[in-house]
Amino acid sequence: MTELVSGANLTLPGPVVALSLPGPFDVTALVLGPDGRVSGDRDMIFYNQPTGPGVTLRATAGVPSVELDLDGLRPGGERVVLVASPSDGATPFGRLPPPLATLRAAGRTIATLRPPRLGTQTALQLAELYRRDRNWKIRALGLGYADGLAGLARDFGVDVSADGGVDAGPAGGVSRAPDGGDLAEVVALTNVERARGGLVALVTEPRLAAAAHRHSADMATRGFFAHDTPDGITVADRVLATGYSYAVVAENIAAGQRTAAEVVAGWMNSPPHRANILRPEVRQTGVARFDGGEYGVYWTQVFGTPR
């Protein structure tokens, strides 16, 4: 197995490969033409638009991955840039585990990608896949962006809306809209309830927030409302996939509430959810809100105590 650092390249054994990225990250793929730019927003494969010709995003046991059939790219697609970003869209890489990606082909791991140490950046060009003569190759990049996924996408010609979100076109159907104030208010209201019970306040943990975001987005995108996904992934699976080793883990979910006050009040009026909020042994939490889907808004709050 080869370790690829920035600038290193490798000839692929064939056009079908898959890259996985464990941890609190999202993966995005940009399909580029001969001019090094997208032909339209449909060339950006991301959480809101998970499939395109030759490119599919998946999450197995909570680990995001991108599967590529490079010979199946849209006409004129000559290069694919793979991008990593924090699942919550905001936590800089310097506060997260290293984004170490694994590349598989023909049923085996053929390379790992090790980017340079990052700081305030919130988006990262991991690698590019390109054709050289008759072969497909991969080159590790390791180029970070401080202005996030929207800034990176804009550089490749993706239409980015005025609020910094990525426009996926009219058929997107789901849009991520995490409001940092809303999420902080959920934590603050949770701690008010805990203080009334004489319990210690919870602190925010980015990896728990990433697990929460992944579940809220999954529920909205795939149209289900449950702690376990249709393919059996649990909160424990999602938390472990971020690299968080826990002694205690629990989860609250909700859908439809428009404000932090509404969602916390709803949880406090539900005995199982109230019990999680007032669980004495938990020490950390992460909250996510995802707008879209059947109920309009999906909330997840994950509780944990590290091992």
UniProtKB/TrEMBL annotation:
InterPro entries: CAP_dom, CAP_sf, TerD. Residues 188-303 form the SCP domain. It comes from the Bacteria. Residues 25-156 form the TerD domain. It holds the Pfam family CAP. Gene3D superfamilies: CAP, sav2460 like domains. This is Alkaline phosphatase. The lineage of its organism: Bacteria, Bacillati, Actinomycetota, Actinomycetes, Frankiales.
